[in-house]
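Hey, I'm writing a tutorial for new members on how sequence and structure tokens pair up, and I'd like a real worked example in the thread rather than a made-up one. If someone can provide the structure for the chain below, I'll link this post from the tutorial.
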Amino acid sequence: MKLKTKEATDKVKPHRITDSEVGLDAICPVTKDAVHVTRDTPALEYKGEVYYFCCNDCPPKFRKNPEKYAGR
């Protein structure tokens, strides 16, 4: 029997930008660059929190080690 070591809430999930998020200002957790959220802004959800990224290069880095970037 295989034991679960992480809860489902610990998984990084894709996030679709909603109308209420468009126009928000955020900070990319990977580069610390400012992000003005648009429909095309890359975003992921992790532990119930949404993270917005400055470019398409950042989400794979975040997925690889979310704890490194989520805690910043």
